[in-house]
Amino acid sequence: VQGVINTIFRGDAERLGSYFSGFGSYTDGTLRALPFDPEKARAYFAAAGYTQVGGDGILTKPDGTRLQVMVSSRIDPLYANCMSVLREDAAACGLDLRYEQMDDTVFFSKVKDKNYSVAIFSWAFSPIMPEPAQFFLSRQAFNSDGSPVKGSNNVMAVASPQLDSAILRARNARTEELAAQAHHEVQQLIAQTACWVPGWATSYCRFAQWRWLRWPDTPSC
C-alpha cells in the first residue's frame, strides 16, 4: 500500500492505521499498518501448503493449486491504477492477485452479501464518534442458523464476543474518557483480527482561484 501512496499519489496521501482514523481522542493513534514483508508472507503461505514455485513465480500447492485471489472493486480508473502496483508487489510474495471491476450497484451488493474474496473500497464516516456496531457486531455477521447476514455493513463477517462486549461498552459509556478508552479497545481488537488491510487517506483538499474571486469572511469559509 505504501507503494501505491508513493507511486499513484506521489506521496500526497497517508497510510491509515486504525479502522476509525480521524476521530480525535476516540482514535487510537498508536495503531500502525503491518509492514510489507515478502519473506514473512512466503513463510505463512508455506505453512498453508503453498510450498512450490511455479514458472511465473506464483506459489502453488503440490497438487498444482495456485495461490490466487480475486480482488473486486467498482469501476474506477484510480483503483485500476492502484491494483497495477498491488499486483506487482503481491507477485513478489508469490501471490497472484486477479482483478475484476463492476457497476457500483452490483459491486456493493456483492460486498454487503459477503459474496466476495477481497474487495477494495472505502466507507464514508461521520463525526463526532466512531460507530463500530454496524460494522463489527456479531449479529450483523451471521444468522442464528450460521448463514451469513446479507445486506449488513459487517461485510467481513467478523464475529467476536470480546469485540461485541467492547463495542457495547463504547456505546454505553457515560463519560468521554470512558468512551475513548472503550473505542481504543475496539480498534485494537479489530486490528488483531487482520480482517482488513489499512489503505490510504488524504486529510486536506486543494483549490485554485483567480485573484478577483473572493470568499466570504465567515466561519464556514
Explain the layout of strands and helices.
Elements: H1 2-7, E1 14-15, H2 38-47, E2 52-53, E3 59-60, E4 68-74, H3 77-92, E5 96-102, H4 104-112, E6 118-119, H5 133-136, H6 161-172, H7 176-193, E7 200-201
Parallel strand pairs: 4-5, 4-6
Antiparallel strand pairs: 1-7, 2-3
Description:
The chain is of the alpha/beta class. 34% of the residues lie in helices and 11% in strands. It contains 7 helices and 7 strands. The strands form 3 sheets. It has a 3-stranded parallel beta sheet, with helices on both faces. The protein has a two-stranded antiparallel sheet with strand order 1-7. Strands 2-3 form a two-stranded antiparallel sheet. A hairpin with a 5-residue loop joins strand 2 and strand 3. Helix 6 (161-172) packs antiparallel against helix 7.
